[in-house]
């Protein structure tokens, strides 16, 4: 496969976002998947748009998509594959919240190299490829950027107080609270995969996740964070890699960090 154009992935994320918002405006019902999680027609239509678009861009590259996997369509992913969550934050979406994103990533050799995260209800767009990460604000009605993108990078030095981002629900458990206390950190909130992007744009230093999360929830944000100068490690300090088919594409906790000093502080806090 030739190197993908990041703009092509952005266009697919924006198209999926438009479809999600159209479903939201028209009204929808929720269904329950076999694992007990919920799904909507917005998830399914957004993934279909992305899958069809990726097939045109790279017909020989398999896609690991949340809804496809839920239906038992799990291709051999090998060294190169797409990792897609068409609607990250389905529960919040179904409850009328604005906290959901479209996530598209390309994974090469276990490492996400290209990623796009788009929040259709707020217009926040983040994207990254090796050496470059940027953000843009899009019009909510049209999903078109309002202005040229702005380059971003993770903070390279330690702040006076560690800024630790977490979700309102899964991020507020006892272990997360202990982690924040051990670092004497200041907790902030961000939605869905935007948490990774807060590290990428310099708005936070650490993002801990102590429960299980699927690879498609993290890959796009990880690619953007890598492009901005940060990274993600497993809870034992090992690098986070993708493509664990036998493990059902589950990540058993991670720490995202903006720089090496933040990584060292996080590892010390977990000892």
Description:
The protein has 271 residues and is an alpha+beta fold. The chain folds into 2 domains: 6-151, Fructose-1,6-Bisphosphatase, subunit A, domain 1 (Fructose-1,6-Bisphosphatase, Chain A, domain 1, 2-Layer Sandwich), CATH 3.30.540.10; 163-269, D-Maltodextrin-Binding Protein, domain 2 (3-Layer(aba) Sandwich), CATH 3.40.190.80. It has helices spanning 6-26, 41-57, 66-70, 90-94, 174-182, 194-200, 215-228, 260-269, and strands at 30-32, 38-40, 63-65, 80-88, 101-108, 111-119, 124-129, 132-137, 150-151, 163-166, 186-189, 206-214, 231-234, 250-257. The strands form 4 sheets. The protein has a 7-stranded mixed beta sheet, sandwiched between helices. Strands 12-14-13 form a 3-stranded antiparallel beta sheet, sandwiched between helices. A hairpin with a 2-residue loop joins strand 7 (124-129) and strand 8. Helix 1 packs antiparallel against helix 2 and helix 6 (194-200) runs parallel beside helix 7.
**CATH homolog superfamily of the largest domain:** Fructose-1,6-Bisphosphatase, subunit A, domain 1
The CATH class of the largest domain, by name, is Alpha Beta
Estimated radius of gyration: 17 Å
CATH topology of the largest domain: Fructose-1,6-Bisphosphatase, Chain A, domain 1
Share of residues in helices: 25-40%
Distance between the termini: 43 Å
Low-confidence stretches: none
Question: Strand arrangement, largest sheet?
Answer: 3-4-5-6-7-8-9
| CATH architecture group name of the largest domain | 2-Layer Sandwich
Return the string of H and E elements.
Answer: HEEHEHEHEEEEEEHEHEHEEH
Percentage of β-strand residues: 25-35%
What is the count of β-strands? 14
Tell me, rounded to a whole number, the average pLDDT. 93
Query: How many independent structural domains?
Result: 2
- Most strands sheet: 7 strands, mixed
The number of helical runs is 8
Q: Would you tell me the structural class of the helices and strands?
A: alpha+beta
Shape designation: globular
